[in-house]
Amino acid sequence: MTRLSTSLCDLLGTRLPIIQAPMAGGITARALVAAASQAGALGSFGFAYTQPEAMAGDVQAVRALTDAPINLNFFVNDAPPPVAPETQHAAIDALTRYYQSLGLPAPAPVRAPYAPDLNAQLSMAEDLTPAVVTFHLGDLPAERLKRMRERGIKTGGSATCVEEARHLEASGVDFIIAQGAEAGGHRGSYLRNPYEAMTGTLALTRLIVRAVNIPVVAAGGIMDGAGIAAVLALGAQGAQLGTAFIPCVESGAPAVHKQYLLAAREDTTMVTEKFSGKPARGLANRFMREMNDNNAPQLVFPAQNTLTGALRVASAKAGNPDFVSMWAGQAAPLAREMTTAQLVATLEQETLEALDRLAALRR
Ligand SMILES: Cc1cc2nc3c(=O)[nH]c(=O)nc-3n(C[C@H](O)[C@H](O)[C@H](O)COP(=O)(O)O)c2cc1C
After folding, report:
1. Ligand 1 pocket: which of 27, 44, 136, 258 to mutate (most atoms <8 Å of CB)?
2. What local confidence, expressed as pLDDT, does residue 81 receive?
3. Rounded mean pLDDT of 58-66?
4. Which residues are within 8 A (CB) of 264 and not within 5 positions of it... i.e. 6 or more apart?
5. How many Å apart are CA 40 and CA 361, to the nearest integer?
6. Which ligand 1 atom is nearest residue 46's CA?
7. Residue 328: per-residue pLDDT
8. Secondary structure of residue 67 in the 3-state scheme
9. Is beta strand 280-283 parallel, antiparallel or unpaired with respect to 269-272?
């Protein structure tokens, strides 16, 4: 039987050149990561907001289910300085009526640290020694990457422009994730203004493939085998899909997120900084529209994420989409509800069919 394989499979030790994108905030639940890896893709934990001890528990749980390769993913973000009281008050004022509409008191001022310590997370990752570590929103020091390489861990970083891709290659990563403007979730930009680094997946993948000498994985708006075949044609060695995995039975996304994703239309995603403090793409809702339109005051990332946390959780719990960060890419209407194993098998089959269709164009 024909199967789908590229140099990325040899590099990462996976059967397929497909990465189930890391999605921080609970979506990449243990069951999702285990099922994606077991099915032949690279299952990935989004550990941006996860403390090192909890990481260890998650990895051990997946290892009890499969010995296939897995990926641990982190946000690279310098801890911001403490937020001034006036800034806190303005950001809290902007959120208070939303909290009150759900019967909640106004949020308390947030206190540093706003996120787990990255170095502690990375040291735990070294101890856990997954097959792959990827990172978003920045780069890692060359000596950290070297240490991971010595332990046999392959590393990959997100780039939203050619400059970031070149920079990552020079720092010593094994592969680049080219994140096009269509992508759901946070823009991975770290050298350029994220609003300028908004090249689409088609253009960006091709530009980065031509600019670097290491494998490129395309991300953004890829939902099926036709999309995977398209980026392979551009010279990518693999595809990273986030939104496609959100409705999977094993995903930890809140029910309201799955439900609205499956009902999404073409024009229903937009980019906002108002949930977390950094631009991210998701299904448009009342919070995004009103906060963007009013250019409401916000805290820096990730302090704003902490400030909106209880609002997002309460809204999701109530089944109310108005205040949930329902991150999703522009091809959201192509989302399908199935098990993770079915999705991965479908993606492989569809990619092979798309490649056959293209080959049949040769006369
Ligand atoms: C809900 C959600 C959460 C995400 N969280 C992360 C994350 O924690 N780390 C990361 O590197 N990328 C994250 N991303 C971005 C993905 O890696 C990838 O760029 C994106 O999903 C590709 O676009 P697509 O959603 O259209 O497939 C997230 C994406 C989504 C949809």
Report:
1. 136
2. 87
3. 98
4. 283, 328, 332, 333, 335
5. 29
6. 8
7. 98
8. coil
9. antiparallel
E runs forming strands in the chain: 18-20, 43-46, 70-75, 132-136, 154-159, 175-179, 185-186, 216-219, 238-241, 269-272, 280-283
CA of 243 to the centre of ligand 1 (A): 7
Ligand 1 is surrounded, with C-beta below 6 A, by 21-24, 27, 46, 48, 73, 136, 158, 179, 182-185, 219-222, 240-244, 327-329, 331
pLDDT in tens, 132-159: 999 999 999 999 999 999 999 999 999 9
Tell if the pTM clears 0.85, that is, is over it. Answer: yes
For 177, the token pair is: 């994730």
Nearest CA to ligand 1 atom 30: 185
- Dump the DSSP string for 252-284: ---HHHHHHHHT--TT-EEEESTTTSS-EEEE-
Between CA 35 and CA 121 the distance in angstroms is: 24
Query: For the residues 306-327, what does the mean pLDDT come to?
Result: 98
| pLDDT at 267 > cutoff 80 | no
Domains and CATH numbers, the chain: 1-79+114-250+339-363 (3.20.20.70), 81-112+254-335 (no CATH)
DSSP single-letter state for residue 233 = H
At 265 the pLDDT is 82
